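An instance follows:
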Amino acid sequence: MINVEKDYKSPEYRRSRGAYVLECAFEYFIALVVTDAFLAKLLKSMGASDALCGIISSFISLAFVFQLCSLFIVGKITNTKKTAVIVHTVSQLLFTSLYLIPFLPFEDSLKRPVFIVCMLTAYFGNYLVCSVIYRWGMTYVESGRRARFSAVKEMVSLASGVLVSLALGFAIDKFDESGNIAGGFAFTAICMAIFSICDFVCLMLIKNEKIKQKTEREKLLPVLKNIFKNRDYVRVVIIQCLYNASLYGTIGFLGTYKQDELAYTIVQIQIINIVGVAIRFLATRPFGKYSDKRSFYKGIMLASTVLAVGFAFNVFAAPVTRYFVIIFTLLYNIGLAGTSTNFKNITYSYLPEQYYVQASVIKDSVAGIAGFLATLVSGQILSAVQAGGNTIFGVTVYSQQILSAISLVLVCVMLVYMWLNMKKMVK
């Protein structure tokens, strides 16, 4: 049992909520520069192919599996702050080290495996405690305001992330234009180290919680039994599997596509992303209010419908119609505004709060496997289409267009499944 008094207006609770909001922002800054065009630029400097860039970019989906390890430690955690601070800070510093790998005195063929090991280790630490940190931070938020608080938290991250991504994108482009891309990587590593320190300080400001120790053997099996006998929860897992497969089957391969075939610079890509984030910023709070009022499930369904339209536009994004990727980016971000926090919060709707960490870990891990498998299939499709000269039956078709079409089908299947199986689910 968590020994905290439910005084949500107390200075300690307010400080904890504010610190948690800022911690999420600094964590988001680091996440920004290990994905999309930033990661593609870093990997390209080490001689990675487009297919390898896409697969490595989607390691985040496979990394969700690391959360399964938390099932065996969550019952043994008696000091949440100590566990979270140590593991999370180490993982953030490992992410920072990724931008130092190009400076290693190795051949590129050796740097890439080192990069993969560091990246997976960083994700391992991050996801080992991410559900623990999320439940810890949300402990100080009233249950009826979780979606709105999550919306505000996300809005802070998005707004500040705009400035960070634009500044770093501009800096890397300038270093690259001057023939000193290594300088750009060093500058980024310094910024990431600062973000990691700020993240650490914010975690330290959150009120600690002491938990009475219960052994994993006493808790795990009955908890898993209670979780899996809930059919609604199983349906949620299936839905997130379809969602992850649709996203990771395409998103990880767009970084190189936007730079190469669509001929956008890093700054242009960041400007497009910033506009998308601004739209997501504006849509986040309305989605939060809608979800608190109607249900997390309905919030996911509405947002996924918007996402499907976005993939439809991306199917036709080519060099001649490269602006379609801008429309996709806008709709994709609107979709994220309604899915990112709702998929985290929906577990609260169908299971007791004490099962949140275990249920969330299992859901995200299974969905992560689905997303990574989709990435592997997409990588094979991309390689095959590129080997054929981006031509199918004499018509020029780019791999990312095919992947977007597959993602569109998966989202539509998910929407139909939700409509048939979840329309009567509780708020």
Remarks:
- The chain has 17 helices and two strands.
